Every structure is written in C-alpha cells, then in structure tokens.
Fold Pentachlorophenol monooxygenase/3-(3-hydroxy-phenyl)propionate hydroxylase.
Amino acid sequence: MKDEAQVIVIGAGPVGQSAALLLARWGIQVLVLDQRPGRARGGSKSICQQRDVLDIWAAAGAGKVAEEGLAWTTARTYHRDRELFSWTFEREGPLPACVNISQSRTEQILDEAIAAQPLIEVRWEHEVTGLTQDATGVTVRCGQRLLRAPYVLACAGARAQALRGALGVAFTGETYEDQFLICDIKADLPGWENERRFYFDPIWNPGRQVLIHPCPGGTYRIDWQIAPDFIPADADIARKIRQVVGDRPYELLWHSTYRFHSRVASRMRVGRVLLAGDCAHLVAPFGARGLNSGVPDAENAAWKLAFVLNGWAGEELLESYHAERHAAALENLEVTTATMRFLAPASVEERMRRRAALEGGRVAEVDSGRFAEPFWYADSPLTTPEPSRPFLGRPPKGALCPPAPGVILPDVLVPGGRLRQFTRDGFLVLLGDMCDSSLFVQVLGKVMRAPLAVRGLAEMDGTGSLAERLGAGPDEAWLIRPDSHIAAIIPHAGPEPVAAAMSRAIGGSPDM
C-alpha cells in the first residue's frame, strides 16, 4: 500500500473481509489486521447465507458464494418422528433465498476478491493491543508497532473483550448452559438434499433438539443439543451420527462443541471507531442471524465511512450507523431469545407450555427459529416517513416487508441485471411517469455532491411494468440509498421535497 490507510479494519473474518471489499469499492484504502498467523481451514461454522447478504457479496465481487452454495428451499420441523409443519421461502428476484456453504469456502472466495483489489492490504500476526483517538484519527498499537488511520472498523469477533473495554463498551447478556455438538459429514441421504430438518425431542436425542442442514458436495451439517457436562468421545459421536443416517456409509469431516451467547454492545460507534459483527453482537444461531447480520453491518459502515472520507457527507452521518445497526442487533436478540426460550425452557411453566405446544400440534406456538431477514430502518434519522406508506411491522415468518421508507428495495430483474445492482454506486432516484426527470437532475445535482442517478421507472424496464411490481404511483419519487434501502417515497413529488429527503439521508437537516 503506497499511501496511509484511510480505514483500518481489525479482523479478517467474513465481516472484516466484506468491509474491506466494500470500502475499496468506494475507492477507500484499507488495511486489514488479524492476530492469527494466517487463514485457518476446516469446519463449516457459519453456513446459511441469506439472499440479501448474497446480494451484498455480489456487489463486492464475491458472487461465487451464491453460485457455489447449495440453495435449499424447504424447512421441515418434527416432534419426535412426526412432522409438525414445513415452510418454503418466498421467491424474490434471481438470487436464491438462501444458500448453504461452509464458512471456510466463503472466506476463500472473499480472499480471492481481496487479492485482486490493490486498495486492500492484509497483515497477519498483528494483534491489536491498544487504541487511542484524537481529532484527526485513530492510533492502533500492535505490540511495539503503531499504525494510524482516520477511522477504524472493529470486526475482531466475539473474543474482543480488550478492544471493547478500551472503548468503554459494555457487552452484557447471557450464556446458555447447554452445549451443542456440531458435525460435518459426507453421506448419501436421498430426499434430504434440499431440505433443512429440525427435530424436537427425537428418540435419538430425548429432551433436546437436532438440526440437519444439507451442504454442497453431498455433505451435511448436524447440530445436537447436548447436556452442559457431556464430553463426547469418538464412540459417542459415531453413535449419534448412526442414529441419524442409519446403516448408510458416511465420512466424518469435522466436529466441535460450543455454547451459545446472547449479547449486544452498548455502543456500536465510539468516536472514530465502529464495531461490527460478533464484536458488536452475539445471538443464538437458530435463524442464521449471526453472519447474516454482520455483513449488513459492514455494508452500512462502508458506505457511510466512504461518504465522510470522500467529502460527500459530514461526520454526523456516522452516528446513524449506531442508530440503525444497534436497532438491528436488538431485533435479532429479541427474535433469537424467544427461540432459545422455546428450545431450552428455563422454568417449569415454560417447559409445560413447550410440551403442550409440541404434543398438541399447536403449530403457531412452536418456535424452531425465524430465518434472517434485512432489518427495516423505519425509525432511522436518515429515513423520511410517509404516512400513506407506513412500515407495517415485522412481517409474517418467511414473508417480505411491503415497500415503505426504511425497508430494503425489492430485488427484481430488469434489463441489464437486477434492480439492486443499479443502487450500489450512490443514491438512486426512481421517478414515476408523471415526473420530469430533467428537472430533477437539474435541481438535485446542485445539492448532492455524492454520486447520484435519476431514472424513470418506465425507463428502467422499457415497459412500465416495474412501477406495477413495486407498487409505485405515477407521481411518486423513490429515493434509494447505496445499501438498497428506501430512504423516502414521496407522493406528488417535486425536486425540493426529494432534495430535503436526500439531505436527511446523508445525515444533514431536511430543511434545505
């Protein structure tokens, strides 16, 4: 790296890798530091990658994750040997709703993209031992070495106690008592190749749960909930696998045990330092809300840091990172805590309610996890509310949020690609047929220094059907952020109210 880094990213896991790629996409020079000697291989770890995260990775140059991942479609939930219910993902656009792929392969793909990006430098064996801030930047201490950058993005993982402590950030929450045994196996399991299976109280793990996920190449990930004091020996693992696969041949590829934590940082921005991923929040994995929340952290931080560093917005924009992503973390905590209370009841009353729900087939009360979804920034200081299009609250399980200010833009096919691909290079204004595009370009170009595109909805697809698919009115203007979230939907739109919404969306006053 010829010049001094503009952002130091601490941690070279998938969140740190994503952040580096997304910052470099905005022309920002990035230095990535990691305390490990190099990339560790092996183990599936975080496997479920949600559609909107695949979209982010595609924009970052890592579209191979979606291409190589196994796109499963159906989730089945059982009580013992009886199926309680199943559900399928709601289809939206060309990307699969979810793919399963090992974290180690995801990291390889992200590393390949980083290697092709001259604005990123990765330094292994750089343990961060201290941080100090002043009015112009952050000094990062790695032993005797001092490094400096205007901003730091901490993606240092769950064990970053010293870093959080140095920033005065609390990380309160709880640790669940039960352990979980996780195994990767290779086996031929006909009919299971595209289904996630969740078992409550199976005869081969009485009183606890088992989760089975298909992965690429005929491999499967199996999670057993096990007792807090159980130490599985090789014979125990073999017996447990046999109880799932029967007498079929199988190969054990990897195994580990762990406990779940539910914790959220008290602050995700401290001055010039932003916290992202497991460094900022830990949740139980049922619903795959860990990495699928960490990558949106990285995207949210990246475009805002880039706007500030490029002089397109004031530093006050960075406070919205905490406002938006901390709210997302609390939403994930609420959802996963409810799931864990059902999976591991803490009281007699909770155990009785769970038993009644499972044995009585009361499907609405059974909670095996709500799958990850993009958070809605309806209450963000960057969002301009519109009473005629209110956010309707958390959607039903498996459903999509109707378009509204704060909600992510639906991803649909248009000539030249997916709709969201046209949002990644700056702000995008989408106009109905009754709006004069030339007038908007003339006015908005004077008030926005950041990259800006103004497009007619009919122009986007050449038929006018895009407006119908979005539910956009002919006199409406839609302001779309660089992370594809809708900042404003303005009826009877003129350039001035759109300019005011644009000012709000980059952290300024809505009064022009």
About this structure: The radius of gyration is 24 Å. The mean pLDDT is 94.
